[in-house]
Structure formats: structure tokens, C-alpha cells
Amino acid sequence: MCRNCSPSNPLVDGLMLAWTVFGFLLLIGLVAIAAMLLLQ
């Protein structure tokens, strides 16, 4: 999980960035759904 291991491989960096953003949005979505269910 080091950033400077393979500087000539932008595909891995893009994939890790996409998974990080996807996981972040998924976490926000789950928190929002839980809040909506609790505040009904």
C-alpha cells in the first residue's frame, strides 16, 4: 500500500482511487439510510 512503489502504473492508482471513492460513498449512503430509518 505504498504510493511510490510503481510510479509507471497509473492503472493501479486509478483503481485504488476509484475503490476509495466508492467505499466512501457507500459508507455515506449506509449512514444516511440508517439515519433515515432511525429518524422516521
- Secondary-structure content class: mainly alpha
Low-confidence stretches: none
Question: Count the helices. How many?
Answer: 1
Biggest β-sheet: count, sense, barrel?
A: none
Amount of beta strand: under 5%
**Mean pLDDT level:** 87
Separation, N- and C-terminal Cα atoms = 41 Å
Question: Total number of β-strand segments?
Answer: 0
Radius of gyration: 16 Å
Choose one word for the global shape.
rod-shaped
Q: N-to-C SSE series?
A: H
Helix content: over 70%
Give the oligomeric state.
single chain
Report on this model:
This protein is mainly alpha-helical and 40 residues long. It is 72% helix and 0% strand. It contains one helix and no strands. It has one helix at 10-38. The radius of gyration is 16 Å and the shape is rod-shaped. The chain starts with 9 loop residues before the first helix and ends with a helix.
Quick description:
The protein has one helix at residues 10-38. It is mainly alpha-helical and 40 residues long.
What attributes does this structure have?
40 residues; 1 helix; membrane; transmembrane helix; single chain; mainly alpha
Question: What is the topological layout?
Answer:
Elements: H1 10-38
